[in-house]
Please model this.
Amino acid sequence: MSNKRVFSDRCDCEVIHEEVVNKVREKMPKEETLYDLAELFKVFGDSTRIRILWALDESEMCVCDIASLLNMTQSAISHQLRVLKQAKLVKNRREGKVIYYSLDDDHVRLICDQGMAHIKEG
Amino acid sequence: MSNKRVFSDRCDCEVIHEEVVNKVREKMPKEETLYDLAELFKVFGDSTRIRILWALDESEMCVCDIASLLNMTQSAISHQLRVLKQAKLVKNRREGKVIYYSLDDDHVRLICDQGMAHIKEG
DNA sequence: AACACATATGAATTATTGTTCATATGTTCT
DNA sequence: AGAACATATGAACAATAATTCATATGTGTT
Model:
């Protein structure tokens, strides 16, 4: 076990286990990748969006229906659907005036299920 | 297919597919559960915390090591570790002055992996 | 007991983000 | 073309949260 101590730039304390830190550093994904991952989870990290995702897992729905279901304004829902779409979590199709939203892929359900499993253990 | 239209409280538009909405409403988990789920994902939704989780997946580490690895202050890391611990995503053990943090359960990895899978498809 | 060190924490500041309000876009129907 | 409706969007406001700074706590060492 190494106990060398090295000052780093912005850390006000010292590295205690340099070897471990170096080993872990090598295995870390690119900064950018982890940033993107955090951005993805940020999308799941809002109760309005989670409720939308959960609802769409049951059935495709139009914006008004979702707004009514969640008792929120059409505008608020529309803004959130945009966020979900940018994250490629939902897709939509148009049928006349009405736009139907649905889940875009299976990861959504898997991620939610894992999250639920964690909560239920509490 | 039902096309009844009903005004709802706070929605500025009308329910278009009442049956669908009612069916979905029945299947929705309790409001509180989905709130908790969102709170969980919120914890994953920060790049500092995601990097900490990823690092701890490689090896248990002390606070200084993590601070050094991520080039951040000890204080910032400590604050985030508290958030992670409250969410039961990490645990710690003391060895003298040093406190080692590690992942608390397997969901962390599974959730991260699903998230990564989603990103990589993009 | 005094000191050094690893970590934790409270308050302040800055940054980010969700919702609202007003309005714009795009579609259907007459 | 104009009216009605479903949805989208930009700006403003309010709420939340991440980091910093100063300092406190807890442990080991001399």
